[in-house]
């Protein structure tokens, strides 16, 4: 069941404005029972608002079943679910005193096992939180007085909220809510109310409740996503940071899903544009070497009057000296997103926050990804398909999967979801089988076996996994494919293999082929922390037979090159094993020892404050120096699917030398300095912020680096303990 460990904060922008104005105009308010509706004999209105999945729960006033007065709050599930639903409110002022207590009469009926009723008291930021989930109040019980009590810390408090909700299935009633400070009813006392320490906390609710999707609503929201992002990055007033643009999105969502006709939608945008003020008519910049630019033809297709469309067209090519929401890394050029709220309090995103996640991410890629043309599906389709998916992702699990799917469609190995949404904790498995698996010859092959203290069946190197937990490997692959950031087949196989070792069970039934015979085994899985890793190579370089120098690129450091180059220059050949990630930046340290003159090795595409969204190809960057004192023997570089990002960049630099040859299989095809992206709920991802190309403008993204001789491991080679890629490189060096 959903555990509301940290949940929504506020109803809407209207409530937010009301609270701020209220607090700044009334110093010592007195709140009555009627203000708060603590007896629940009136309809649910401000300051109460509904939370959770409104399609699975119904909340309202019951005038037939109540504890006292004329009514009680009733919350009931209306279909089978694993979500939550109820109501919540924020106190419009801080409270001074020693302690606060919240009590209520609660009745419950037919709350099934695993479901529970909750009363929540929350004091932000992180002063106190209890939603009684650990008490698992379920079953059927008549009216009971439930209490929560804690110390007050007024000088640290930014918000106080209470909520009543049902997680799972059943029915509950709430009546006679009472909040006291040091035993005194807050609705009857004067002098205990003080301002919040820092104002209202960063909101954890957008105020947008779940709503049904229709083709008309979907299209309105697609248009909104484009217009909101366009104004965010192109309008001079927004660039100055004058507006809370996330809050503007929530206002716009609320407006356009409520109105009945296009004229009303048009009127909303007319007012929005007028509120931002008049702008200059910016001319399109005349730039050379443009390779990609934002397509603004969508403005022409909007079903609004020409006045609105012309106001949008005027700012298509606005330029900035600085911008509130983005900048660029000095001397590098990848975008740096800034002033984006993380909404760390959001752990069960409502409809507004789900759409904010989509619109924020989509527009970041739209304007700042040098590889937008390589997404799959096309980037416009991601927005169109994403709107109804986000609307319908009403529980934590489906929202988490929608986030994974969204970022995976960039097809950039950098653009995974690098923080795990609440609904996906243990999605792939909390245990691991103590092995390494790689996809070889299209099969899942055990390539390493790690030590563990578990007894029972064991894998052997060379075993071919056919099924896990009664699912064929192909079936597992198909179930995960939509959620994997897979720029090419090599990364798809790499990431699939890593997920095959995980499970939520401590005993994992597997079918495999060993020595040509099918067998069944039950493999013990355990937490990763309990798996003893294989012995790692700690030697950065060593001599092999026939005077061949082997370099482990991940362990090599710049100082080692300087100290050892005199000896290295005498070897017959050099192997640089780049099937790893560099531990030092060696592009300009190692290449002078391989080249006799400066040589082109890479080009970049980038955008800027002056023309955001337009990507220009740079002149080639060179490595090497004019010298005769360099190594002239053969150099072989080893690569595979683990060669990614900086590793690929290093190989491109080394390839500039004519006596360097590359052996192995397709690399990850994900290069360019990364730019970090924060999404609601403290979720984080990245994008490749620079386009990386060979000097002849050949792409590397999704393709990988150029390979002179394709060499792939074989199942037989794994079983024999051979490194077939290294063998082929040594064969070349020994000729």
From TrEMBL:
Matches recorded under SUPFAM superfamilies: ClpP/crotonase
Enumerate the spans annotated as Tail specific protease domain. 569-709
**GO MF, one example:** serine-type peptidase activity
Q: Which Pfam families match?
A: Peptidase_S41
**Biological process, per Gene Ontology:** proteolysis
Q: What is this protein called?
A: Tail specific protease domain-containing protein
- Its source organism is Sphingobacterium puteale
């Amino acid at each position: 069941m959903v555990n509301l460990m940290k949940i929504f904060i506020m109803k809407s922008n209207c409530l937010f404005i009301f609270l701020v104005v209220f607090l700044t105009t009334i110093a010592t308010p007195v709140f009555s029972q009627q203000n708060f509706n603590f007896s629940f004999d009136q309809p649910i209105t401000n300051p109460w608002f509904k939370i959770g999945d409104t399609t699975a729960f119904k909340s309202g006033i019951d005038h037939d079943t109540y504890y006292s007065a004329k009514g009680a709050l009733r919350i009931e599930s209306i279909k089978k679910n694993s979500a939550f639903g109820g109501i919540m409110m924020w106190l419009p002022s801080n409270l001074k005193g020693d302690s606060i207590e919240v009590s209520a009469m609660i009745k419950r009926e037919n709350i099934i096992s695993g479901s529970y009723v909750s009363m929540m008291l929350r004091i932000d930021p992180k002063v106190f939180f209890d939603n009684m989930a650990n008490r698992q109040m379920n079953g059927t019980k008549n009216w009971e007085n439930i209490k929560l009590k804690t110390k007050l810390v007024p000088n640290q408090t930014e918000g106080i909220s209470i909520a009543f909700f049902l997680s799972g299935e059943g029915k509950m009633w709430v009546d006679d809510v009472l909040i006291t400070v040091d035993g005194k009813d807050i609705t009857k006392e004067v002098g205990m109310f003080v301002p919040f320490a820092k104002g209202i906390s960063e909101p954890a609710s957008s105020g947008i409740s779940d709503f049904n999707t229709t083709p008309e609503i979907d299209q309105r929201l697609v248009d909104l996503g484009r217009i909101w992002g366009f104004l965010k990055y192109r309008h001079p007033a927004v660039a100055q940071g004058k507006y809370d643009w996330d809050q503007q999105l929530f206002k716009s969502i609320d407006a356009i899903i409520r109105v009945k006709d296009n004229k009303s939608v048009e009127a909303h945008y007319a007012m929005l544009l007028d509120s931002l003020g008049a702008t200059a008519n910016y001319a399109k910049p005349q730039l050379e070497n443009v390779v990609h630019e934002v397509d603004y033809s969508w403005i022409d297709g909007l079903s609004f009057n020409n006045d609105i469309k012309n106001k949008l067209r005027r700012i298509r090519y606005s330029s900035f000296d600085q911008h509130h929401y983005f900048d660029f890394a000095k001397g590098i050029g990848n975008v740096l997103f800034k002033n984006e709220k993380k909404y760390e309090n959001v752990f069960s995103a409502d409809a507004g926050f789900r759409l904010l996640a989509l619109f924020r991410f989509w527009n970041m890629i739209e304007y700042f990804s040098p590889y937008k043309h390589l997404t799959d599906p096309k980037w416009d389709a991601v927005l169109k398909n994403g709107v109804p998916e986000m609307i319908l992702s009403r529980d934590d699990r489906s929202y988490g999967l929608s986030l994974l799917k969204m970022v995976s469609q960039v097809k950039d190995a950098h653009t995974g979801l690098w923080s795990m949404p609440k609904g996906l904790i243990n999605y792939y498995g909390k245990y691991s089988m103590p092995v390494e698996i790689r996809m070889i010859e299209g099969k899942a092959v055990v390539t390493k076996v790690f030590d563990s203290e578990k007894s029972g069946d064991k894998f052997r190197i060379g075993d071919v996994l056919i099924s896990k937990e009664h699912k064929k490997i192909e079936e597992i692959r198909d179930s995960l494919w939509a959620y994997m950031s897979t720029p090419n087949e090599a990364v798809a196989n790499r990431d699939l293999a890593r997920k095959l070792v995980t499970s939520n069970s401590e005993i994992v039934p597997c079918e495999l082929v060993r020595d040509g015979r099918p067998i069944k085994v039950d493999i013990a899985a355990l937490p990763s922390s309990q798996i003893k890793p294989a012995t790692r190579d700690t030697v950065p370089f060593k001599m092999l037979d026939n005077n061949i120098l082997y370099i482990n690129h991940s362990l090599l450091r710049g100082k080692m090159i300087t100290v050892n180059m005199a000896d290295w220059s005498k070897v017959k050949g050099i192997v640089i094993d780049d099937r790893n990630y560099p531990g030092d930046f060696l592009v300009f340290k190692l290449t002078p020892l391989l080249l006799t003159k400066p040589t082109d090795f890479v080009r970049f595409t980038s955008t800027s404050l002056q023309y955001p969204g337009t990507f220009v190809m740079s002149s080639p960057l060179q490595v090497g120096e004019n010298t005769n004192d360099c190594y002239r023997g053969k150099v072989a570089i080893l690569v595979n699917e683990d060669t990614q990002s900086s590793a690929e960049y290093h190989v491109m630099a080394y390839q500039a030398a004519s006596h360097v040859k590359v052996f192995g299989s397709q690399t990850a095809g994900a290069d360019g300095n990364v730019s970090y992206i924060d999404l609601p709920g403290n979720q984080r991802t990245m994008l490749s912020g620079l386009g990386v190309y060979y000097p002849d403008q050949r792409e590397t993204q999704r393709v990988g680096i150029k390979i002179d001789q394709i060499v792939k491991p074989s199942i037989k080679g794994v079983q024999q303990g051979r490194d077939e890629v290294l063998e082929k490189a040594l064969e070349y060096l020994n000729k």
